[in-house]
Design brief:
Helices cover 45% and strands 7% of the residues. A two-stranded antiparallel ribbon has the order 1-2. The chain contains three helices and two strands; from the N terminus they run αααββ. It is mostly helical.
């Protein structure tokens, strides 16, 4: 059974920012706003982190652009059935 690595400090900060930004503004922050808030000056670094979060199923996007990003509800862990 493969265990997923925990989120990095930066990924946790990005997730917190996206959640709070959506609550406050009703939309997701831009890549530049995310970078400025979490200390990343390169937009490609922010896009990389968002891609990692997307691979984990924590966020998704409906289009090619990150402005269509949305939070996903965490999926429950599947437990393997044990045979007797």
């Amino acid at each position: 059974m493969r265990r997923e690595r925990p989120l990095s400090v930066r990924q946790e900060a990005i997730m917190r920012l996206i959640r709070s930004w959506i609550i406050e503004h009703g939309e997701v922050p831009t890549i530049r706003q995310i970078g400025a808030s979490v200390g990343l000056s390169s937009t490609s670094s922010v896009a990389y982190q968002l891609g990692q979060l997307e691979e984990r199923g924590l966020i998704s996007r409906t289009g090619r652009d990150w402005s269509s990003c949305q939070l996903e509800s965490p999926k429950p862990h599947r437990r393997a059935l044990r045979s007797r």
